[in-house]
Amino acid sequence: KNGSARLVLLAADASENARHRAEGFVAGRDIPLSTLPFTKEAFASAVGLSGGSMAAVTDLGFARALLKALAEDEPERYGAAAQRMEERYARARANTQARTKRIGKRRNDA
């Protein structure tokens, strides 16, 4: 809700209401929505909840790893999303390295 999600995951048998809410969370943002090949029960137990059909991943590296693993199993379904996440991760990493380099130069000049 606060915009820090990097990936939204949805169970395969999620209700229409849950699907609509998930689509609302990602609408107008550059956040992928991936429907997983797991039931609500399997999904909830995997993420450590007693119930639920939706989860948001806030860590970019973890989101990248999840989509990469899904794409290895089902490339036709998750390959494009994994590729977009890989590009997003590379941009974020390059920005972090550039920012670190700038900060390091300031410290050396001072």
Structure description:
With 110 residues, this protein is mainly alpha-helical. Helices cover 62% and strands 10% of the residues. It contains four helices and three strands. It has a three-stranded mixed β-sheet, with helices on both faces. Helix 3 runs antiparallel to helix 4. The longest helix is centred in the C-terminal third of the chain and has 35 residues, at 75-109. The termini are far apart. 19% of the residues are buried. The model has no long low-confidence stretch (mean pLDDT 86).
Percent in strands: 5-15%
Distance between the termini: 41 Å
Which class best fits the helix and strand makeup? mainly alpha
Residue share in helices?
A: 55-70%
Mean pLDDT: 86
Number of strands: 3
Model regions low in confidence, pLDDT < 50 over at least 5 residues? none
Spatial order of the strands forming the largest sheet: 2-1-3
Give a quick summary of the entry.
With 110 residues, the protein is mainly alpha-helical.
Q: What attributes characterize this protein structure?
A:
4 helices; 110 residues; three-stranded mixed sheet; mainly alpha
List the helices and strands and how they pair.
Blueprint: E1 7-10, H1 16-26, E2 33-35, H2 40-47, E3 54-57, H3 60-73, H4 75-109
Parallel strand pairs: 1-2
Antiparallel strand pairs: 1-3
